[in-house]
TrEMBL record:
PANTHER family the record matches: TRANSMEMBRANE INNER EAR EXPRESSED PROTEIN
InterPro entries: TMIE (IPR032006)
Top-level division of the source organism's lineage: Eukaryota
Organism in which the protein naturally occurs: Oncorhynchus mykiss (Rainbow trout)
GO biological processes: inner ear morphogenesis; sensory perception of sound
UniProt keyword terms in alphabetical order: Membrane, Transmembrane, Transmembrane helix
Protein name, as recorded: Transmembrane inner ear
Pfam family for this entry, one: TMIE
Amino acid sequence: MLVQHHFIENSTSVCPLLPTDPPKKPDPVTSETVVFWGLRLWQVIGIFSMFILAVIITLCCIFKCRIPRTKKEIEARHAQRVAAKDYANTLETVPPLNELTEIPGGK
């Protein structure tokens, strides 16, 4: 069996290393760095934060999302709901106005 040996020439002996400039470091990111559309980083963060806050406030207003903080508030809210339900049920039993009163000039 024949074994072949491959020799690779060392490239440093053929061509000496030339001095090159070190790679340029990227500019550090600061609050004044322009991110996109000509807006600075602090402006982008502010706009994004206001958008998120507006979404949270809108959702809380739509779904009436408020968590009571104390047991007393929880009990007061429950009593208020029960009273509102009882009042609504009472209103359903009231007869219409035309059955309760005599209309002048009517039959």
